């Protein structure tokens, strides 16, 4: 009955790919569900329940603190070596806990201390099950995903998860706004309950079902499979290189979570934004996450996970300290533009950090012993991530009544003008402390050894490589080269600033390269189509005795065939039309074919081919007329006469196809050409 829970000794390539797809989509559904119970939603839900900063910090700390439960999960996986049987029930129970969390407002008075306490308790219970699933699933994926595609697999998975989070998050925020717009104040909190209950029915149940259909490879046997629990747990701690990773994970996650869990609270309370606006900013981060995660994934595979982690982490620090300037001391006219930039860069940084933190532990573990290493790494991450928001919440409450302010003043005979430069109060202090601790923790990363990791400068050169042509052009301006070099020298001293510059350079270069490549491809396509039509027509002409009598047919079938060949070039049909018409007319111009006959045949063939390949007749007709006018002087005919001959062929083909096609082409042709009647070909 429970045979589906047993691991498989062997898996074929098809089974591996199918299981990878199922596990990828489980991650997407899990992320969508979690988006409704974390971040801005959980912060708003907690505030509606009456939570203070410390309680918000506790809520943010519960998921990572619960990672301590991975230790017994590690022992269970190592002893029973059945990850699916251990992880799947835990995953179902973890998802089910969203039901009582959502039900709190229905059974307890809100806002109130009992309500927020109940949510904390239920989230803590959920935290007992989630780490068991994470431990089993991570070890499972370690043996399922081919080692050479770890970065690509997880980057693709994260990208899909982010898309789901964006769509679900935006939809959920507008639902909350809509609900609160008509519901009585004492009922507005039910919007969050409905979202979580609905999310559980749609996402929380389907995800575990997908896991049930995926296959688990048999865990490799080790010579020390009978080791004691203490030996299993202590093994990673004896690895000096892995200890360096543990220290970094502990202090980095502590620094990061001092501030990040309070971004949403800051926008809701200090900046006074609505929930849809807060979620909108969060979604901006998710979009930039999606756009850049593949870049980080590819760089991690080429240059090393540690190198990418260093870049992404330093960029995250720049984002955190940037929040200090979103108020001065209150919201100002640059607050929103600055938040847009910060959230965009936060998405880029988060993509790199999450991707590399997920994979660096996998890459540094010995073959066949992933479970204890991953479990211990998760505990270090959880302790740091859990302590951060609790300490941050306590500090935020403490600093609520404290103000640190630096003003710039100008004194003259007319009086004193004071301009506030920096003003810190409440959560502002968290941003500064987080930045300082995070910068210190980056030094711990330098001690980690990763085989094949490139130098950080190599990665920066790759990010900046696309800007080389731009900088070469700029440097030709007198004085600009020296100014740029000096500016970059100062920028490099600010943690994360050079990465932000590199990211902007990379995106600008990518966009420009895509546009230029597209334009170049279009030009090459046009030249190739014209050349191929000319060659094919030339071969056909060699087999015709009296070319002059068959000019219409030759032009017709040449352009008609080109339109069929153009089906593979999406969005390029107008270019294909002009090129095929030009190629046919130029080839026939060197023969005894009457130019007007060639024009008529080309018009007929273009529309005939467009009808057969289901293309827009109006666009094709317009492109054919433009080609006729362009070729008129080369053919030795008047421009209007060339357009009229081409229009005659177009109208004839449309008329043969039926009234709807004829009406379409007459609707786009100039008035002086619509009166031309169809002629026989």
Features:
681 residues, mainly alpha, Growth Hormone, Chain: A, two-stranded antiparallel ribbon, 29 helices
Percentage of β-strand residues: under 5%
* Cα Rg: 33 Å
User: Mind describing the biggest β-sheet?
Assistant: 2 strands, antiparallel
| Second CATH tier, the architecture of the largest domain | Up-down Bundle
Averaging pLDDT over every residue, what do you get? 78
What is the count of structural domains?
3
- Enumerate the spans where pLDDT stays under 50 for 5 or more consecutive residues: 466-491, 511-520
**Overall spatial form:** elongated
User: Which sequence of strands runs across the widest sheet?
Assistant: 1-2
Folded structure, characterized:
- The protein is mainly α.
- It has 3 domains: 419 residues, Up-down Bundle (Growth Hormone, Chain: A), CATH 1.20.1250; 56 residues, no CATH class; 159 residues, no CATH class.
- The protein has a two-stranded antiparallel ribbon.
- A hairpin with a 2-residue loop joins strand 1 and strand 2.
- The protein is elongated and about 95 Å long.
- About 5% of the residues have low confidence.
Summarize the structure.
The chain is mainly alpha-helical and 681 residues long. Helices cover 74% and strands 3% of the residues. The chain has a two-stranded antiparallel ribbon with strand order 1-2.
Secondary structure layout plus pairing:
Elements: H1 13-35, H2 39-49, H3 53-65, H4 70-80, H5 83-96, H6 98-107, H7 113-144, H8 150-182, H9 190-204, H10 206-213, H11 229-234, H12 240-259, H13 263-270, H14 275-303, H15 305-322, H16 335-363, H17 370-399, E1 403-412, E2 415-425, H18 428-445, H19 456-465, H20 468-474, H21 480-491, H22 497-542, H23 551-565, H24 573-589, H25 595-612, H26 617-635, H27 639-657, H28 659-668, H29 671-674
Antiparallel strand pairs: 1-2
